[in-house]
Amino acid sequence: MPRPTNDGASSSPDPTLSGGDNGPASTESASRSARGTSGSSGGESRAAADTADPGRRPSDSRGRNVAARKKQYVIAPRQPDGLQAMSFQPLQFSALEQALRSSNDIEVVDTVGPKSVLGALADGMGGSQGVLVARMTEQKAAVLHQQGQGRLLVEHDQHLNLMDPALRQPAMVTGVMPAGGGPVLNAVISVTGKDGAPQAEAEVSLFGSLLPASGVTDANGQVTLSLYGETPESVRGLYVKPKADYWSFYQRDPDISTDEPNVVVLRALSDWPSLAGFPRQRAYGWGQKAMRLDQLPGNYRGQGIKIAIIDSGAATTHANLVGIKAGFDVLNKKTNPDGWDQDTLGHGSHCAGVIAAADIASGIRGFAPDAEVHACKLFPGGQISQLIDALEYCIDKQIDVVNLSLGGAEVSEALEQQIVRAKRAGIACIVAAGNSGDAVQYPASSPNVLAVAAVGKLDEFPADSYHAQTLDQNVDAYGYFTAKFSCFGPQVAVCAPGVAITSCVPPNNFAAWDGTSMATPHVTGLAALTLAHHPDFQTPQYKARGAERVERLFQIIRASARRVSLGDQSRIGFGLPDVLVAVGLQNAVNQQPAQAVAPQQAGAMAPMMASPQLGASLGGAIGGNIGGLMGGGAVYDPLGLDVARAAQIAAYGTQWPQLHVGRFPLPQPYNPIMW
């Protein structure tokens, strides 16, 4: 990622972006023109190409040799925050755009910026200019970066991923293909449901010790899978994921026949005790009940709050989602911007159901059924530039809460600038931590969002379902456990139910899925209820849109949480948020409501808590040296994210554990160091 220079220069020349530069991209452009000259024979053209591009090798047959293609980049002036101290002047967007468009080896494919005067002024800064999306070679991108001298962002427009956990292969499975033939195992898998009905479009995977085999069942519920280099005795696992309405299936070391179909009989979702009568009878998901949504008074429905779900769209064919009336198809904004109601993946519909499913007699009930939901379609194939565009839509529409069950491989400074803009405009971004079982992914790792990890609960799914494979050893006395796939790290603010979550899928069905993608909507729905009903947000200070309002919302959500599972702070943050506490209906016994903290104070406190000196000093104040116990260095302490809560602990001292009595059950002795 490009970083600002620190030479202290009072001014820097604008990048020389015209087509007359002498960068490598211009050479390539010239050679391309030479290859296209008329009158040359095919052999002469290939010879010219080989001369102009030494990296290309001659081909002995018809066709084209594989080489690196032009890549798509996000290009934007670096925002002045933090640069003015170094006497930099921000680049003018109009001049940058003109220069890029005049370059004959750069193709500008899109411009993303404020969609109205309201959007331009929404963050209170009035300086937003947008980003450019362009295709060019890596060499040209490097030249632009260098010429920008720290004032220009040039980033690869990376593709984003939905936060669904990848299918985990059994231990010792390798990616080796057997050489010289060897045995081939052909197995027919037949998937049926209730009363023997064939289940079409079910995903089926068979694992041996080498490469796995996967396929999708046909209309008869059957699929034939071939494992190379395997025998029936070496098969390690069989996985079946139905399209809808049934529990998944996983069998370790299955007894596979090669002579007749292998039948897998799936369990209907409604066969599970907690979902009896579902979907004909309305039900709360186990996660919603764990967060006490079922105990919330009926008039708490998220009225007046706008929620955006940036995902794969929302299927309004679903009876629980017919109330969604607005959205934006970012992928097809030039041809069909209203295509947001077509959800080919089902992922966005699943998130929308948890957040705001209509409160009708059937299906599920969402957290905030009366909120105004906007579905922004970003998948399949969403990229950083399109996420920036979706957030621009949110700024323009004055959205209050955004659900981001997505992530990328790398940090994007261009996206971070947009997230900051959104926060200043009063938009709270709730983001999935990730499903790689590793460090928190971006943008969940951003300090300007609320990152959500996933937990599960025993007895909320069949033992032979794939959900059982998410279980880890961090199980508390009440059955809560940290999901094995969930990312972890100091950025995790809270955890939420993310295993065996039942919600809506197209066209009018239901499915139980796992992922921090499923945990995040629980917190997004709770955030909407908090904004709509907590007394703080009826006061002038926090009713006004801005970063202070967002920061206060995050504080209240963290303060409402209780610890679940035996996982450490990096896996659960403050713990599982509680709806009744978050909306202000309940407080802990003898606990005073958390006092407001200005965003700049809270923001300054968090990085300081990484200091071993300050960690030691605050640790002493609450009766324990946090910095010392954690071995010094950078430590994670959620107290540093909420100054008011830290002050309360300091005030109550050793009586702090008693503050939880009568509020939540404590599945284990309370440990203030691990909270």
Automatic annotation (TrEMBL):
GO MF, one annotated term: serine-type endopeptidase activity
Annotated stretches, region: Disordered: 1-71
PROSITE patterns registered for this protein in UniProt: SUBTILASE, SUBTILASE_HIS, SUBTILASE_SER
Pfam families linked to this entry: Peptidase_S8
Annotated family: Belongs to the peptidase S8 family.
Family matches, as SUPFAM superfamilies: Subtilisin-like
PANTHER family xref list: CEREVISIN-RELATED, PEPTIDASE S8
Example of a GO biological process term: proteolysis
Keyword annotations: Hydrolase, Protease, Serine protease
Biased composition (Basic and acidic residues): 53-63
Name of this chain's protein: S8 family serine peptidase
Catalytic machinery residues: D311 (charge relay system), H347 (charge relay system), S517 (charge relay system)
Signal peptide region: none
Keyword Hydrolase found: yes
Biased composition (Low complexity): 25-49
Peptidase S8/S53 domain residues: 302-544
Source organism of the structure: Duganella vulcania
